[in-house]
Fold these 3 entries.
Entry 1:
Amino acid sequence: MNMKKLNAALLLLALIFAACATPAAESNEKEKEKPLKEYTGEPVEHVFPDLPYAFDALEPYIDAKTMEIHYDRHHRAYYNNFINAIKGTELENASLEFIFSQMSKLSATIRNNGGGLYNHNLFWEVMAPGGQGEPSEELKNAINRTFGTMDAFKEKFNNAALTQFGSGWSWLLVKEDGSLAVSGTANQDNPLMDTEKVRGTPILGLDVWEHAYYLKYQNRRGDYVQNFWNVVNWDEVNRRYSKAKK
Ligand SMILES: [Fe+2]
């Protein structure tokens, strides 16, 4: 084969390869960009919530400086980053619950910051100065049915918090069938996300990122987790339980 013929053969091979390769590459891209379901609920305006109490209200269990930095820096940053990520997109006025149900199709920016926004919204609300109320009869019965006793439930919840490697959350959640479960999630994930194995509606959550406790407790995550029970707002947990069960 002379050089001219060899070059022509190589060119032909390259063209065949390109013709075969292009659709495959496109199909991989399409795989990554599966269409989102259309949001058909009420339009949501995402707002940065007020903290329901003063920075020092959860002392001595959670110190004022931690609360200030946690709420005003961390939570606010999640909110701002999330708003920037959804601005001008079809998700701009979609609910967080809807967004989480499509999580596997969305970016890490939306996952981390949307999760960070929702999780902290819930976290502030399920705490109150000195704790508030107690589990309702209905919730107590469900906890006893699922975990045996209230203490056994707390142990399981604490264990999820303590064994979460690195940053994350522990949760009490209501599964789709109305039953309760405890789970731990990494980073800013939560049980509403379609990326989670244990899915449902969270009704109690504990932030175990170091930013939530390090100033006061340093590496003693166990003491922080134990003290959390002194500030749980059971009235709010009961309300969320009743709503999630409907
Ligand atoms: Fe946090």
Entry 2:
Amino acid sequence: MANKKIALACAQCGSRNYTITENPQRQQRLEVKKFCKYCGQHTLHRETK
Ligand SMILES: [Zn+2]
């Protein structure tokens, strides 16, 4: 049972700054506020396929 890996991309500049391992049971779309070094601030990050 391997957890799937998800890349989190900045909603402002589109950079994929984080990779997380997510529970495959989860259904809703992931949105997290994280620091983007390209934007220089905390921005919303969304999962990418
Ligand atoms: Zn950014």
Entry 3:
Amino acid sequence: MRKPITDLIHHPYVPPAKFAAPQPGVFKASTVFFADVAAMRARDWKTKAGYTYGLHGTPTTFTLEERLCALEGGTECLLAPSGLAAIALVAFAFLKTGDEVLIPDNAYGPNKALCSGELANFGITHRLYDAMNPADLAAKLSDRTKLVWVEAAGSVTMEFPDLPALVGACRARGVITALDNTWGAGLAFAPFDFNGTGQGADISVQALTKYPSGGGDVLMGSVITRDERLHRALKLSHMRMGFGIGIGDVETLLRSLPSIALRYHAHDRSARELATWLDGRAEIAQVLHPALEGSPGHANWLRLCGASDMAAGLFSVVFDARYSAEQVDRFCDGLKLFRLGYSWGGPISLVVPYDIGLMRDPGIARWPHKGTLVRFSVGLEDVDDLRADLEQALAAL
Ligand SMILES: Cc1ncc(COP(=O)(O)O)c(C=O)c1O
């Protein structure tokens, strides 16, 4: 007779199958059981045909991966513990000693730091290129170039590049392109099919931390492709580096993903309204929002995103040079609804002042502004309240 403590663990009860509810079931596992040794030996961890170990996928992670593929128009997806980890996964899957990676000067900063840190330590070089000048990228492609990053819009300064031209230059040389698609989120444009041409990036990375999560409470990244060969290489690196993610976070993502388009649209509408309003203010020298005329790359945004008429809820402003950096800091401190904090895509509006002089390489493209830049991530608050908050902080200047 078995003792109750054993039956507590090896309990015979199996709930009836075919439970249906709005949210999919949540399966938490490191260990996965096999029916017998033959099944254990036959199992191929590289496919979604079954389960091997928690790190290689569960019904819950597979479900999120498939839904993200649907969003971005890809066929294969891998999840990583953060957006930056997803970026690192791409680098480690495709670069080895002696290779070179090209990265836009206005790329997400920590991607550049990864290049000058770990990748340099492994003997992988990187070069920055001017995202707004496809000829600069084309001139820097060499036999050593094995990966090119593209990003639209550029981080913080929001320039919208000619993505089809950048990707086209790489394709002509057979170089893999990886798009940081966090801004577009699979909604503003199709990352694998620019304007219905069937041409797009080879790999799309998203920080799911932003719009797919939408809560400011989850860190996760995705790496999506349409190319089985690229996916295989990524899957091998993913396994070897042991990138696991908390299933509770996957559950949160599955809960928020269905509302992503509504939220993205709401962030976009409020951001455009505030950006347009700030454009008319004497305190502001330049508004940087790709959907606004006069913003760098607006024509590129129009060509790629005109059909969706979508943009993320992010924009930056450059203050008139008569305001010192300290005054602009005080403006940020004076905001009451906009909170000081990194990241974007959550319900609460955020603000960060940046010193662009420290972030851009003067040898790539000259930053034309003298005033201090402030980046806003517009949340889901009422837009009139947000405008009033900006107005009172501007008045205090
Ligand atoms: C454009 C972009 N890509 C990637 C990331 C990295 O995402 P995570 O914070 O999940 O590492 C961020 C985060 O701010 C980002 O802005």
